[in-house]
């Protein structure tokens, strides 16, 4: 009798890993045999969303359920309180709290329930006290990525300078009208984590001093910077007061709604940015004349000049248009930068199509889109 060849488990896992985004294929694989179940569930059940709709199903299963065993990213969405059974998800590594109504007592329980959190995202339209937020964040000792979105923070009664952010923190993404509260506290710390990535959104003129101080404090630890101005008219003011020369290890820079001046200012100070490899600019333009706000010829020469300190390997233009049909196409952008195009540096992206595709990819039957995933995609 011929023996059936045994496929090594490592090879099975590697094959299934290639199907990580195909949920129907993963579901089929999980029904093939016992050797295929674990790896299939690893991808199928790694993202879990607890909401008033899903809780009765997910938490009704006897512990330890497959959701608790395989779940690594947990979103708690629109919950008034923590449901019974959530303690079985202690192996969760990424926690997303979306539109929550939790009080201080409930929030204080989360760090002990999820002790190995490395990714934390808080997204809410509610008003929370600044001190409560800072105490909560500092309670996750292994935190590497922190995302704060749409928080309305009350003024701190007493700035908690005695608290320290986790030394492991490397990435900060923040969008809040009270950005100054967070940045001023961060800048006042005696020991600031060596953040390598920071993304700041909805920047107003009043945020300029705090942003400038933050860039100075982070210094050479900062490698990836993304800025979004609330109004492109603020670009001139930012250009006058923001100094990128402290960030000598900068490898990538992304700018939304602030071109051309702020982007050009960074490149012209390129003598300090020898490691700069990638730059991304979002252009809001429906018609070709809108592009002529930028001196394309001088930018083309600056980027390709062999005497320039930095060596861009990719210059991405994300073009966002209000209409489905736009005069601004890839050929139009390429023609504005013939020298860069000849070096294969220029990349054109339809921002509308990119966001639609990313939004669809990040929405599933259990997992919901997180703002952090959207902005880093």
UniProtKB/TrEMBL annotation:
SUPFAM superfamilies, per the entry: RNI-like
Q: Which InterPro entries match?
A: LRR_dom_sf
Q: What is the protein named?
A: F-box domain-containing protein
Give the organism the record lists. Hypsizygus marmoreus
């Amino acid at each position: 009798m011929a023996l059936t060849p045994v496929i090594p488990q490592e090879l099975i896992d590697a094959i299934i890993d290639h199907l990580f985004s195909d949920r129907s294929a993963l579901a089929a694989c999980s029904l093939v045999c016992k050797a295929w179940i674990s790896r299939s569930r690893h991808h199928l059940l790694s993202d879990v969303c607890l909401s008033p709709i899903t809780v009765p199903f997910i938490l009704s299963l006897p512990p330890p359920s497959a959701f608790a065993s395989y779940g690594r990213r947990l979103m708690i969405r629109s919950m008034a309180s923590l449901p019974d059974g959530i303690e079985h998800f202690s192996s969760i590594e990424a926690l997303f709290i979306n539109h929550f109504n939790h009080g201080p007592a409930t929030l204080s329980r989360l760090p002990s329930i999820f002790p190995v959190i490395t990714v934390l995202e808080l997204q809410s339209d509610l008003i929370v006290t600044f001190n409560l937020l800072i105490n909560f964040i500092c309670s996750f000792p292994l935190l590497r990525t922190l995302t704060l979105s749409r928080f309305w923070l009350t003024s701190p009664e007493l700035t908690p300078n005695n608290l320290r952010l986790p030394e492991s923190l490397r990435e900060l993404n923040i969008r809040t009208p009270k950005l100054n509260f967070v940045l001023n506290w961060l800048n006042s710390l005696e020991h600031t984590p060596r953040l390598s990535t920071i993304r700041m959104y909805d920047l107003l003129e009043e945020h300029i001093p705090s942003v400038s101080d933050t860039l100075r404090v982070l210094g050479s630890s900062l490698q990836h910077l993304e800025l979004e101005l609330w109004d492109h008219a603020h670009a001139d003011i930012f250009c006058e007061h923001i100094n990128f020369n402290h960030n000598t290890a900068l490898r990538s820079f992304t700018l939304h709604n602030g071109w051309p001046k702020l982007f050009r200012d960074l490149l012209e100070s390129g003598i300090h940015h020898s490691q700069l490899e990638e730059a991304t600019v979002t252009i809001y333009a429906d018609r070709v004349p809108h592009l002529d706000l930028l001196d394309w010829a001088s930018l083309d020469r600056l980027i390709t000049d062999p005497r320039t300190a930095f060596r861009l390997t990719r210059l991405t233009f994300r073009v966002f248009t209000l209409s489905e049909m736009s005069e601004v196409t890839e050929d139009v952008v390429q023609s504005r930068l013939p020298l860069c195009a000849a070096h294969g540096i220029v990349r054109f992206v339809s921002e509308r199509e990119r966001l639609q595709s990313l939004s669809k990819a990040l929405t599933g039957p259990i997992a919901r889109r997180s703002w952090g995933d959207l902005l880093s995609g």
